[in-house]
Amino acid sequence: MEVPVYRNGETPIRASAIQRKTKETDIQLSLALEGGEVAVKTGIGFFDHMLTAFAFYGGLGLKLEVQGDLEVDGHHTVEDVGIVLGQAMSRALGDRKGIRRFASSYIPMDEALCFTALDFSNRPFLVFDADMPQPMIGAYDACLTEEFLRAFAVNSGLTLHMKCLYGKNAHHITEALFKSLGVAVKEAIQITGTGVTSTKGVL
Q1: Residue 70 carries which DSSP code?
Q2: Phi first, then psi: what are they for 107, rounded to 5°?
Q3: 194 and 97 Cβ atoms separated by less than 8 Å
Q4: Distance between CA 134 and CA 152 in Å, rounded?
Q5: Neighbour tally for 190: CB within 10 Å
Q6: 156 and 120 in contact (C-beta within 8 Å)?
Q7: Antiparallel, parallel or unpaired: β 125-129 and 159-166
Q8: Are 140 and 44 in contact (CB under 8 A)?
Q9: What pTM, to 2 d.p., does this model score?
Q10: Which residues pair with 116 in a beta bridge?
Q11: CB burial of residue 111 (10 Å; 0-12, 13-18, 19+)
Q12: d(CA 49, CA 55)
């Protein structure tokens, strides 16, 4: 169920809630772009940690509960969360009028340094350049980070470029990627004007 955009005085309240159920996952998610409670439960501890960090550094309110076929592996859960989170982001942004739109961020974590550049362009694209030195981070398959980001970018209408400049620890690399995404999203969704940030007049 979607929560529509509305205005309280001059302050935009942008939020969306979605429930999506398939044979592989059952997801309930609510997202508030102006902030709020963060409570994440996907059944994959490290993924919960990453989504919590993303929401915290993105200044987002995020409530998420997932029942997934983890007896198979984590792929369906991680990818489907990306789909639903992307859909919620797109709906909460509405017509995207007034948003800054572009942003970038470098985030270090110990020996790792990661970079995100993004554009809420409504032209989804992912460029991902981050090798993972270790295949697993706890019960989380490190290759699923790219799958999550692709699903999020496609479903939120986001042009997203992410790169690990260097790093030796997959945990540190992945965490720096999620944090840099959060920092960049927080800046890009800020309302800085009244019209659409595009020479075409529409996103």
Answers
A1: T
A2: -130, 125
A3: yes
A4: 23
A5: 14
A6: yes
A7: parallel
A8: yes
A9: 0.93
A10: 105, 162
A11: exposed
A12: 10
Structure tokens that stand for 176 in this block? 């720096």
Could you give the dihedral angle defined by the CA atoms of residues 46, 26, 1 and 123, in that order, rounded to the nearest 10 degrees? 60
- Residue 90: helix, strand or coil by DSSP? helix
- Which of 57, 70, 58, 65 lies closest to 19, judged by CA? 65
Shortest CA distance to 17 belongs to which of 33, 1, 5, 32?
1
- Digits of tens for pLDDT over the chain (203 positions)? 344 444 555 556 899 999 999 999 999 999 999 999 999 999 999 999 999 999 999 999 999 999 999 999 999 999 999 999 999 999 999 999 999 999 999 999 999 999 999 999 999 999 999 999 999 999 999 999 999 999 999 999 999 999 999 999 999 999 999 999 999 999 999 999 888 777 777 78
Longest Cα separation, the chain: 50
* Residue listed under structure tokens 């790169």: 163
